[in-house]
Amino acid sequence: MIEFRSVTKTFPDGTRAVDDFSLVIPARQTTVLVGSSGSGKTTLLRMINRMVEPTSGAVEIDGESVLDGDPVALRRRIGYVMQNSGLMPHFTVIDNVATVLRLNGVTRSEAHTRARELLDTVGLAQTLADRYPSQLSGGQQQRVGVARGLAADPNILLMDEPFGAVDPIVRTELQQELLRLQRELGKTVVFVTHDIDEALLLGDRIVILDKAARIVQQGTPDEILAAPADEFVAAFIGADRGRRALHLKQTPHGTVVVDADGRAQGTLVQSPADLLDAHPPRAADGVANDGSVQDAPPLLTADEGD
Description:
Blueprint lengths: L1 E9 L5 E10 L4 E6 L5 H8 L7 E6 L2 E2 L5 H6 L1 E4 L11 H5 L1 H5 L4 H14 L16 H13 L5 E5 L7 H18 L2 E6 L2 H7 L2 E6 L3 E6 L1 H6 L4 H7 L9 E5 L2 E5 L5 E4 L4 H7 L28
Parallel strand pairs: 3-8, 3-9, 6-7, 7-8
Antiparallel strand pairs: 1-2, 1-4, 4-5, 9-10, 11-12, 12-13
């Protein structure tokens, strides 16, 4: 668990980036800090690994202040993924991934073995291990950055707008990859973004910030969408423009979901439970009158000829 208690950060030029901020970040969940530029979200993130120190207040991990120990040792046990991957250009992929392990005293052979495992974990081919960052696509570089962040098997993974510099298609792929990794690994992820759609997709909990890290609303995606706390939140998530007010529309090709302006947003997919509710099975369908299942045909079948 990560806890901020009455944290304030004032920079030497007098800028107050964070003002009396308090928050508990639960373990083994993804908490997204979302806000516009100047909301203090990156400053908060960097206080966790002590790249920025608070002017006042306390930042604690599992009840221990981050200020009590060696800052270098702290950073080596916390994963960190940044926007432009931050890879060392003169290191190969495998050496980039193995960097923290080598700094922690792991032998080169052991570090490389772990690094190769992580390439598989983040969906990168082993043939990329000996390439340099300049020989990779933007999406591949970000995957290497995620692998490096996971190399020391940290409990905490900090992600500072990690997918902001790639194209939309690659960004979608990386977001889905992060969801898969989190299901498998269950890390405490603190994710910073200015994109509310990304926050709603990735976050177990979302914290919406205004200037100086003032918390406007926090909660699950469902809670925030269903009940925006005020006009600021409604505008931020697009509810004031009807962006979140979706409706069903019949078209010659079927039913689609549209927004308040009639623009198509997707299609409605029925779950097997919905289909059962809409079409209760009969004995002739393979379900006996007593509710037991006989050799029933599947509810959904492939097109004939497949």
